[in-house]
Specification:
Four copies of one chain form a homotetramer.
Chain A lengths: L4 H11 L3 E3 L5 H4 L6 E3 L3 E9 L2 H9 L9 H13 L10 E9 H7 L6 E4 L20 E3 L7 E4 L2 H26 L8 H4 L8 E9 H11 L6 H17 L1 H12 L2 E3 L1 H11 L6 H4 L3 H11 L1
Antiparallel strand pairs in A: 2-3, 3-4, 4-8, 5-8, 6-7
């Protein structure tokens, strides 16, 4: 990703002028504001605005007049309690606004999370830039043979070269033709029609605003090891920002969501039997082969 | 409404310490932060936090890197265009967090607006204060005879006195008994049960967070002349705050929402005929008596 | 709860006239339609309409033209997979519409679940019936001493009698005065004002429509042993209906939600160590005393 | 659009077996169930399920036990009243489930309406069909010169031919290469990566479920003359289905939404002055040139 000098100048200007506010300020997040953190080959994530901090979560949980307790330790304990017991509304009291540049096929997956506000760059109104996602060689994988919805081994040599060759050539040709179509001195096709010739690895941009509870839900699914690599890198970039913004809430999220395991009624039953010394097998566990395999992975 | 010295001290402390931020600051809103604006006899509205300003609406609409245009005039034109043509997503990019104290029967109406985040004071966990809404004499009205869902004339003399007497006596008695029920040295009833003895004019509190688009929707319905007085005064208080926060967006809201009229296909047809000099009556207008009456009110 | 003869006649009429439809029919749910299942002393839950069944979940997950697989076993496996891996959208393809009569303090808790459609009986427009929730003696409990937000032991003897006496007397007096206030030949106060004199144990009614995914979320929280008894009985009544409607989805919900346990990163780590034979104590577990206690309860 | 014999057989089977139900049945909608109504060159809309009818709207508005009034006329009056006065919750009590096949660039616009449930065909898991939207000659338009976000005149002769040639050739080449990429005996690229080579005119499919209130909102924006043609034809197809399903609600929607005009405070003021005989010009109207032009269009 490279910003134009104009874009960089706009960002620099925004970062040059701190102003006084009476609102809650999260020092860890101020450092991120407006900067474009690169993701993939041309994408980025930028924090455009935020509301609240760890203390604001506690303040809302207590419906209090002031900041609430002075003790950071008490606040951490409360936040962990709220997270552990699925009290989600206090986390909804923090809000994050991002500017994201991302490939269209990633955007299509991302937008499935409906509880957020979105303004996307309009290809009916504007002309898209000539920027396409071309995967780095180490991220070109074969179809998984065990998971219909995932990747297997990294492709190498001739096969990887063939992938890159096709993606680059088709992107270039489609964009050349897009330009031919919209050229006002040539065909002059309406933009809302011409855009249909562009493949799903072209980059788009949007403003995306979400509350912390729904953001955690997004991050749990998309920063997960099973998420598609191309969206996971965005989620991981956001995780780092959130960790600087609301450190206590993020730690609780790591412990009780990202790193947690949900055990079914059958799994809990097996576990108790095993801890009592019983030998439990798939046969006497009441689980399907698939569930049993998942259970083994958890306790190994 | 009167704040306790502790509450006032907490508010004063929050207002005493401006901190530098790189975020957008709305000067008109900084003046409102944390102060408790009185509403009804014991209620209030306090701005606890906000995100964005008029320029942030335009910035999102343009999906831009910086502040966007330097011209305030251009921003106003864009905001009016967005409002007029129901482009709602840019307005969703501003967010407001309020602390509200309000009677339960008002809270029950307010919560019907689902697209907001809420943390309410828990009467399962805490003990409610002895504060009840008792209407001022000029807001004690008879049932309307024309509108099943509204108020008619102000009650006077003996009738108004009877209303006040009943409301005050029942509130006091119910609260005394609530105290008897929860008294740990007496009955010691669980709070989650004891609260059921309290009437709907008792005050509750909540943190309420909403984006500007959904807030405008709330204000259009609740600041309207047909809204119940007791919720309208809250909406009006919020209108004043929003007007100081995002003046251009608020003006567009006044012109295209609050002060606007939606005319049915039949009304528009009549209007055109009337402007051409035709005499239109209910008979040849294709409207019901009720619609015709509403139409007359609009054009009078 | 007792229905008036008119209400019973309306229900009987609705149940007397089956009509042919090409839509999916869930036989287990047809048996529940329109009947009023009693809950608490005057409340009820009635199924008014439903959309979809177990097969409809699979059909949506597969985006298929027809019913999808003919094999019930395959459908069950798919449903369990979807539930286990938090693929929530197929469950959103089923919808349930209920008519519920419930005390206002229960309604206030219920409405916190925002992702549903609601039409409540309007006390601005109509007059509420003289029906109040008075707990049965075995559900009158003291405040819990270990949980600020819960109930302890059942109250007995004089204390329980005092509770019933207060609740009954205050309900009766408040309703008498409500009638005095709205009496058109007397005070004639507007209904929207008079309702504020009614305590939170009065019954209200609403139509509530929700998709199956959000309903499961509601049931997980409200049919839980920690939920307040007065809302839990509603949730339990709905659980039985859902079990008859979508048996495979409900079984998966029981195994992977209701009966499941979410273990934190620390708990999973301890578990692995314990299964390897290590003696783990709170000291070397990295958990707070509270978390350790919760962990012990799970594995006991 | 052409269905495969298997697909047609599945649809025929679903339509061949009416079953008795006690639920509300909308005869006008039964006729549409499961049939695939063609839209564009390969797309379709199919009703998969529905809940409710006109009477169900009234029943919810009245929170009644039975069907409510027997009089169709009363129901129509109530529905028109509810629509006119923006009482949206009763309309939320009807629900529609559609199966839609549509080009990806249309799907991207459609999904912006967030208050619906969606299951889309997964190109991570499955292989997309070789079907691309190629506009009919009469729908190939130049970029509008007056509206940055719209179409101008139809292109003809050589220019139209060039558009078709480019769209067809790029679609074919991209799909050929997609096949090369995913071919298990060849490159064997993961499907989640290969899909990025496909242009936005490829067809996708989804199940889409929405309540009537939110559907009306969608239809008002997308069946509007200013909507892009390729989504408008889907909206128009749905309008016909809804008109057969809930005729009274649809008529009210036509009169008070689709055919209505919202007049700003300034417009209403001008109108009153004009009806009193005053000559109003842009200069003395308090409107911008653009608003004035829009006003002239309304009253002409």
């Amino acid at each position: 990703m490279s910003l134009s000098p104009e874009q960089q100048a706009e960002i620099d200007e925004l970062r040059a002028n701190p102003q006084p506010t009476l609102r809650v300020v999260a020092p860890g997040m101020e450092g991120h504001l407006y900067k474009a953190r690169p993701v993939l080959d041309h994408g980025f994530v930028r924090v455009v605005d935020y509301m609240g901090d760890d203390a604001a979560i506690c303040q809302a949980a207590r419906v209090s007049y002031g900041k609430g307790t002075k003790s950071v330790q008490n606040d951490e304990g409360l936040i962990r309690y709220l997270m552990r017991h699925w009290h989600s509304t206090p986390f909804e009291m923090c809000e994050l606004k991002l500017h994201v540049k991302l490939p269209v096929f990633v955007a299509r997956q991302w937008i499935r999370h409906r509880t957020a506000n979105v303004n996307e760059y309009s290809a009916r109104y504007s002309i898209l830039d000539r920027e396409f996602y071309i995967p780095a060689p180490e991220h070109i994988n074969a179809q998984s043979v065990v998971n219909n919805q995932g990747r297997g081994d990294v492709l190498e040599g001739e096969e990887a070269a063939r992938v890159l060759e096709i993606l680059k050539a088709d992107s270039a040709r489609c964009y050349d033709n897009y330009q031919t179509l919209i050229d006002a001195d040539g065909v002059g096709l309406a933009r809302e029609l011409a855009r249909m010739n562009l493949p799903a690895n072209i980059y788009t941009q949007w403003y995306w605003k979400v509350d912390l509870h729904n953001l955690f839900h997004f991050l749990r699914l998309r920063a997960d090891a099973h998420a598609q690599y191309e969206i996971r890198v965005y989620a991981e970039a956001i995780c780092e920002m959130v960790s600087d913004w609301v450190p206590a809430a993020y730690k609780a999220f790591e412990d009780y969501r990202m790193g947690s395991v949900t055990m079914s009624a059958q799994m809990v039953d097996c576990l108790r039997r095993m801890l009592k010394g019983e030998t439990v097998t798939q046969e006497n566990a009441g689980m399907s082969a698939r569930e049993w395999r998942e259970f083994q992975e958890v306790i190994a």
